[in-house]
Amino acid sequence: MQATITETALQELTIGSAEAFAIPVAPTVHPLFTRLVDECGAQWVDLDNIDAYLAERDDVVTALVIAGDPVRFPEGLDVAVVLPELHALFPTQSRMAIATSRDEDAIAKRFAATSRPSLVMLRGTQYINTIIGILDWDDYVARFGEALSAPTQRVPIAITNLSSGSSCA
After folding, report:
1. Residue 149 has pLDDT above 60, yes or no
2. Closest CA to 47 of 102, 119, 116, 112
3. Which of 20, 52, 102, 107 is the most core-located residue (most Cβ within 10 A)?
C-alpha cells in the first residue's frame, strides 16, 4: 500500500527525542486550476489576501470558485473548464478567483456556500449570489450575465448542521 502526502499531511517527523527533518509536501492542486491562474488570469485567494483582493475592484464582478476536493467533487473540474469561457464573454466586467484548498472551507462559510462546486459572485467585497454546481452552458451564461447587473445583497444564512432529532411526527 502506497501512502500519499497531502497539504494537510504531517510536515515534520521526530526521530528519537531530538532529531527532526522536514518532509517536502507536493502541492495537490489539479492542473486545471493551475491553468486558470497561469494562463487565464485567475487569482488564488486565501484568508490572508481575500479581503484586499476583493476590495481592489468594485467595478467588476469576481467569480470566486469554491471547488472542493476534485476526487470527492469532480464537477469542480468542469467549473475550471467553463469559467474561463464565461469570463471571455464578459472580459471587462468580470474576473476570476479560486479559494485555496487550505482555506476554502472558511471562505465558503463566510459566503454561505454549502455546496461544492460553487461560484460565489461578488462585486468588490459585496455578495451578489452563488451559482451552485455544474449547469448547462446557456444557464451558466444567463446566470453569469444576470450577476453582472444584479444588486448586491446580504450573504444568506447557511443552515448546514440540522439536529438528528425531528419535531415532526
Report:
1. yes
2. 102
3. 107
DSSP string, 87-155: HHHSTTTEEEEEE-TTTHHHHHHHTT--SSSEEEEEETTEEEEEEES---HHHHHHHHHHHHHSPP-PP
Tell how strand 126-132 and strand 94-99 pair up: unpaired
CA 152, CA 149: separation in Å to the nearest integer?
9
Here the cell at position 78 is: 468542469
Phi/psi for 132 (5° steps) reads: -105, 135
Distance CA 107, CA 40 (A): 22
If you average pLDDT over residues 115-138, what whole number do you get?
97
Q: What are the grid coordinates assigned to 108, written together?
A: 465558503
CA 166 to chain centre: 33
d(Cα 120, Cα 34) in Å, to the nearest integer?
A: 19
pLDDT digits (tens, 9 = 90+) for 48-104: 999 999 999 999 999 999 999 999 999 999 999 999 999 999 999 999 999 999 999
Under 8 Å between Cβ of 128 and 61: yes
pTM, 2 dp: 0.78
Half-sphere exposure of 154 (CA within 13 A, CB side): 3
